[in-house]
Amino acid sequence: MLKSVLGRNVDFGIKVLFEKxxxxxxxxxxxxxxxxxxxxxxxxxxxxIKKLDRALRELQFDVVIKLxxxxxxxxxxxxxxLTANSTQLEVCVENQIITLLKQDYKCxxxxxxxSITTLNxxxxxxxxxxxLKKVASIYxxxxxx
Length: 145
Description:
alpha+beta, 3 helices, flat
């Protein structure tokens, strides 16, 4: 038993040292190398998204879901004499229409009166989201605390 406990501790210690070594190696990389690796990951992701765009380009669909009533209620615990067998919370969604439409690059989603429309390929949307993330991080970094 002592051997198995020591074995686990030794294994854990080796794992911790190995993780520290990997973290130190990652932190010691020059900034240019880190930027290059990040750019390569983005290019790889963009290529995957391009394949998805090509596969979905020919796909056309129009889905409409009419939701008459969706009800969810929570009742009290049966052991609690104050809330037993009485409804404590009700959530209800009534008369809603959910629409999904896909034509070429254009995608439209309308859920509960909120519409989202994309007019470009997923590749362009990914690039836009990355640029937006960078700009937002610049602004948050430069804001006074």
